[in-house]
């Protein structure tokens, strides 16, 4: 396994934010409800009055910039309140721990006997996603034998940016692939 630090330095600079997320820096500094709100606002695209972002995939969140951000256009205040309530229950450590388990997950997956997925899979690619750029999906067909690819003209937050388009793709795929194959059994 290639350590994340080496991947970021050599092949996947777009995973630089993961170094910050796993570092422990965020949960040490982001502890109050207001700070969690500011963090989520920044992660979801809130910008400073001069238009600059608080989040960059190569670096992560600029924690010093969070306090002065304009509200994100992606989620309304009610939904953001809900997320703040959920994260505030136990803090940021648990959610950010996912980024700390990369090596453990890799080792466990080595034990899998099967290396292909042989059920229908729908992959909806966000064409402007800087965290998971489209090129990263090259070669998926080698491991997923029944892959359907679709795309939406959004960045990382496709479900919020183009909900009707994404839901239409899912609905069509369910009708054409999943439900049709069930009726032929």
Please give a handful of descriptors for the protein shown.
185 residues, two-stranded antiparallel ribbon, two-stranded parallel ribbon, single chain, globular
Radius of gyration: 19 Å
Order of helices and strands: HHHHEEHHHEEHH
* Beta strand %: 5-15%
How many β-strand stretches? 4
Shape, per Cα inertia axes: globular
Report the average pLDDT across residues.
94
Poorly predicted spans = none
How would you characterize the largest beta sheet? 2 strands, antiparallel
Query: What class would the helix/strand composition place it in?
Result: mainly alpha
Task: Record the strand order, biggest sheet.
Answer: 1-2
Number of helices: 9
For the termini, the CA-CA separation is 41 Å
Please estimate the helix content.
40-55%
Summarize the structure.
By secondary structure, the chain is mainly alpha-helical.
Describe this structure in words.
The chain has 185 residues and is mainly alpha-helical. It has nine helices and four strands; from the N terminus they run H-H-H-H-E-E-H-H-H-E-E-H-H. It has helices spanning 4-10, 16-23, 25-29, 33-43, 77-90, 93-97, 102-110, 158-161, 163-183; strands spanning 55-56, 60-61, 121-126, 147-152. It is globular and about 50 Å long. The termini are far apart.
């Amino acid at each position: 396994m290639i350590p994340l630090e080496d991947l970021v330095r050599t092949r996947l600079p777009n995973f630089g934010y993961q170094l910050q997320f796993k570092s422990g820096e965020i949960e040490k500094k982001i502890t109050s409800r207001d700070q969690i709100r500011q963090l989520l606002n920044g992660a979801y695209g809130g910008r400073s009055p001069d238009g600059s972002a608080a989040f960059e995939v190569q670096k992560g969140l600029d924690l010093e910039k969070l306090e002065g951000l304009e509200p994100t256009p992606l989620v309304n205040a009610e939904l953001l309140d809900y997320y703040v309530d959920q994260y505030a229950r136990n803090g940021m450590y648990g959610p950010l721990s996912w980024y700390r388990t990369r090596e453990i997950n890799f080792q466990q997956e080595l034990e899998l006997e099967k290396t292909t997925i042989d059920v229908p899979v729908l992959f909806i690619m966000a064409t402007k996603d800087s965290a998971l750029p489209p090129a990263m999906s090259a070669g998926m067909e080698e491991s997923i034998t029944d892959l359907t690819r679709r795309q939406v003209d959004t960045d990382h937050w496709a479900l919020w940016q183009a909900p009707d388009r994404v839901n239409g793709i899912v609905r069509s795929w369910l009708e054409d692939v999943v439900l049709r194959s069930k009726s032929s059994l």
